[in-house]
Amino acid sequence: MSTTKQANISLADEDAVKEVLSEAVLGLWEVVNSLTRLRPSKKDRYRVTIFGSARVQPGTFGYEETKRCAAALAEMGCDIITGGGPGLMQAANEGASSAPERAKSIGIRVDLPFEQEINTFVNQTFEHRTFFTRLHQFVLTSDAFVVAPGGIGTVLETLMVWQLLQVHHLNDTPLILVGDMWPGLVEWARTSMLSADSPLASPEDMNIPQCVDNAEQALAVIEKHRAAWLQNQDDKPNPS
């Protein structure tokens, strides 16, 4: 460890202060990046993140179907993670909370001036000030992603997970897009990115999202992946 004493910097020296702040922020990110490399040797629970619109109202088909899907996942032995807000996020947390299993109903929310408080069906909450750190936590804690219909925020979340799977920062993590709004997005990407003289993506990148028609098909994908996940957990040695 270096013992060289660094000179003090006057707050009146604006350029030097900016340099110190820049170095400090970069140093903090390096610490965060190092810490997020750590992973438990074994995980007790399989966790599914459900993304979807905050605008869908209780009693609608989309709300009730999302609630039913989350309840079935919880009964399967999955914890449910959402953004913790209203709409389909609330539906998923409500479904998880209604299951007889000991599933956790988790909300990872971001501070927005127009966002409602965390929904009442969440039993574990995490708060973030930025979308960037919030999205990072989704990635670190999820074993699969189910995407219900949603708006711009849902599209942002979906494309981020898609890109991380493309560059192998995530591996063997299902990205399941449910409903008739998503095949058009994937087809747009396929047509626009692969038809250029110099393709902008690889053909296999278009196979990363799995588009399904309904919750039953999404549940089947999760059930198969979770079975392989459980087998992998059983094969890992217990930490001493």
TrEMBL record:
Its EC number is 3.2.2.4. InterPro entries: LOG_fam, LOG_family_nucleotidases. SUPFAM superfamilies: MCP/YpsA-like. It comes from the Bacteria. Pfam families: Lysine_decarbox (PF03641). PANTHER family: CYTOKININ RIBOSIDE 5'-MONOPHOSPHATE PHOSPHORIBOHYDROLASE, LYSINE DECARBOXYLASE-LIKE PROTEIN. This is AMP nucleosidase. It comes from Roseimaritima ulvae.
